[in-house]
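Morning F.,

Quick status update on the modeling queue. The single chain you submitted on Monday has been processed. Sequence for confirmation:
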Amino acid sequence: MRNNENHSKISRRKALSLLGLGALAIQLPMGCNGRQSRIDSLERELIHYKTISEISKMIKSREISSTELTQLMLNRIATVDKKLNSYLTLFNDAALATAGKLDKELESRKYRGPLHGVPIAVKDLLYTSNAPTTGGHAFKTDFVPTYNATVVNKLHEAGAVILGKTNLTEGAMAGYHPHFKIPVNPWGPYEPGESSSGSGVATAAGLCFGSIGTDTGGSIRLPALVNGIVGLKPTYGLVSRYGVLPLAESMDHVGPMTRSVEDAALMFEAIAGHDPSDPTSLDIEVPDFSESLKSGIQGIRIGVDIDYISEGVEVPLRKSIQNAVKALDNLGAEIVPIKIPGKKEEWDEMWYTISAKEAVLAHRETYPL
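Structure tokens below.
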């Protein structure tokens, strides 16, 4: 959707919601008029754009059920994602079954935490035993793993409802395979980001409340940037990579993509932690990041390389970064001038050399030398 100055009174969220509102009713069973009216009302309230922390409170207080919320999101995906192509696989029946189970748990006063009953999505690089894991490869469309990725299991344990698996570049590195449609940035004629583009688009467009991406050379951070959301590349080893199709194992990371910093902390806490199945997993206690947010950023030291954020960067983006630095300074952070050693061309060459070598090793059975 292109930005249009003549329609400046319509917010971006409102404009996106209109994509799916008109056709929502036809997705619901005809015999469920009361339920249809309820879900239509929730759609008009733009409930799909609430943060995880907001929707979590509504679920816990039983203001809304996970089943209602999951149905609303699946209906919305069925209409809006025809244009955005953020999902490769949907778990309609499984998601509704999970939501129903979680609603019953809540009725019996079993509450799993802030992700209880919250619909989310995972990148189609993570193993799921109930559906294919393509990794963006056409030849893997029938590959169904015999086990879940550790992160998928942790999300289930935390009470999340996984709506489906999101689109990505082939192998999380190259371009898109022609077998799959390319995700579309919901804000206009902009890049959707690579390679966690589907996760970025789905989260930005209100097609999930948060998602999981992977990052080897920017694949969480860049889609988060261009889709206007929050992306977190965690410290290496804090989140298990077990059951995740590799690109470059020494640089692969798994992390959350959300619409707020608090939500990123909540999802990160759910997926982080030691995993004996991953030899690179750190055996340390995971900090309470969501609690630490309450203390603000007073006194936190943030390094800024002025040349790095300025040279070769388009003026609007450069100004946005500079404004963000000023805002952090005003909030009490200590801005420390730094200089990143080397040149960008040298960093790119090193990254490609390492990632190409490790990608060859990881996929040698599929692409023999």
